[in-house]
Amino acid sequence: QVQLVESGGGLVQPGGSLRLSCAASGFTFSRYGMTWYRQTPGKERELVARITGSGANTNYADSVKDRFIISRDNAKNTTYLQMNSLKAEGTAVYYCNVRWFDGALRDYWGKGTVVTVSS
Questions:
Q1: Can you give the three-state secondary structure of 53-80, one letter per residue?
Q2: pLDDT tens column, 12-70
Q3: CA distance 72 to 24
């Protein structure tokens, strides 16, 4: 079974940093891109960052560009989201996602990790 487990969330002050991890299992990790999303109650889910299977290419939401860095360690089957210069609007549940199509859409999510940016 595909499993994604996020960790690393917590309370951080504005301007601070936090690193999230997503441990993956149940699929050939290096073949697939990984994506981080975030969501706050009452707001739409937002794509934060995406990385290709090899790690060669990354994409970021404009709201986090130049502050967040997505990376991966394929030997550890883990994707990371380094969050720097955190703002209050960074408060959200952060989710790890992988998806692909193999005759049907496969779309897998972790349970999320809570990030609270507050003084």
A1: CCCCCEEECCCCCCCEEEEEECCCCEEE
A2: 999 999 999 999 999 999 999 999 999 998 899 999 999 999 999 999 999 999 999 99
A3: 11
Tell me if 59 sits within 8 A of 50, measured CB to CB: yes
Q: At residue 21, what is the residue type?
A: S
* DSSP per residue, the chain: --EEEEE--EEE-TT--EEEEEEEESS-GGGS-EEEEEE-TTS--EEEEEE-TTS--EEE-TTTTTTEEEEEETTTTEEEEEE-S--GGG-EEEEEEEEEESSSEEEEE---EEEEE--
pLDDT (tens digit per residue) in 58-93: 999 999 999 999 999 999 999 999 999 999 999 999
Mean pLDDT of the region 98-117: 97
- Count the neighbouring beta carbons within 10 Å of the beta carbon of residue 87: 13
